[in-house]
Amino acid sequence: MDPFVDALVEEIRQKGESNAGRSLETFYLGGGTPSLLSGPHLEKIINAIHKHHTFQENSEWTIECNPEDLDISTVKNLGILGFNRLSIGIQSFHERDLEIMRRSHNAAQAEASVRLASSGGFENITMDLIYGIPGQSLGEWEENIEKALSLPVSHLSAYHLTFEPGTVFDHWRKKGRLFTVTEDESVDQYTRLRKKLLSAGFDHYELSNFGRKGIVSKHNMLYWSGAAYMGLGPSAHSYDGERRSWNISSLKEYIRGIANGEEIGETEHLTSKELYHDYLITSLRTKWGADPAHIEEVFGPGYRMHFEKQVQAFLKKGSMSLRGGKLCIEPGQWLITDHILRALFMD
């Protein structure tokens, strides 16, 4: 871990020089398991962040944590370091589900971690749940939702289990050890999720995300609004409004490249059509939708004409609606988002 943290601190310094004068809105430590880092390692990273970057007042600082890595001293130390939001990877409160997904924690640790975070002073706590798990009944999924609602969480993300090529899940599926759930089961679980969370006062503001009392993930909202962002570390992605870049995924090569002053990533320049597609993919994931005026201003009148022509069929079907000058996919229709996007894309 020492050479990794040293390399990360050096990249933080380098990106700070190129980012001079820009004040950041959020900081997100995750996309891995940062809760495995020791207190001194985390402190070294945070000190470098403060030394080389500036943040706006009331910025959101999130760290991803595994339930088994949290105890009261760890939680309090995270608060001292400046984190004001914890994202806990719960996934499920059922032992069988956790075993299938090869999680290291058990159901008791999952529940205890949220209560620990709250007792340690965190008010903004978000958790992840997974549905579409092979063998998971609708009743078991309901129990997961109800357990989550009984805990002091302000935000909840729910994702459908996917079988990505090359993963152990995909290998098990091909060998007949796991079977994907049916579309009807997926729809039932998603519908039940929406119904229970809405009745509990949560706002379904993005395809997979729900917030209590107006709370949203400020960090993710920057992605969905097309804002520029900076990624640090192996596999991290960055975007400046025109170009997308990403670091190499190999930890060994990342450490060596930083130490030797070598290029550690790649960059692609996006075409207008790619940027337009990205805008639709991100904006239509949210309840606020896509703005035709923005499309014309940024991409030109031809893109707006195409967009407004293609949405007519979905407006007539009730899959989309016009709200405040923006065109939105109805939250109950987010399950067919990919179908709608294909029709709105430019050939």
Total count of strands = 12
The CATH architecture category of the largest domain equals: 2-Layer Sandwich
- Structural class comes to alpha/beta
Shape: globular
Q: What integer is the average pLDDT?
A: 93
Spans where pLDDT lies below 50 across 5 or more residues: none
The CATH class assignment of the largest domain is Alpha Beta
Domains, number: 2
* Distance between the amino and carboxyl termini: 47 Å
**Strands of the largest sheet, in order across it?**
1-2-3-4-5-7-6
For this structure, the CATH topology of the largest domain is Transcription Regulator spoIIAA
Number of helices: 15
Q: How many strands, what sense, and barrel or not for the largest sheet?
A: 7 strands, mixed
How would you characterize the overall build of this protein?
With 347 residues, the chain is of the alpha/beta class. The protein has two domains: 20-224, Transcription Regulator spoIIAA (2-Layer Sandwich), CATH 3.30.750; 283-344, no CATH class. The protein has 15 helices and twelve strands. The strands form three sheets. The protein has a seven-stranded mixed β-sheet. Strands 8-9-10 form a three-stranded antiparallel β-sheet, with no helix packed on it. It has a two-stranded antiparallel ribbon with strand order 11-12. The N and C termini lie far apart (47 Å). The mean pLDDT is 93.
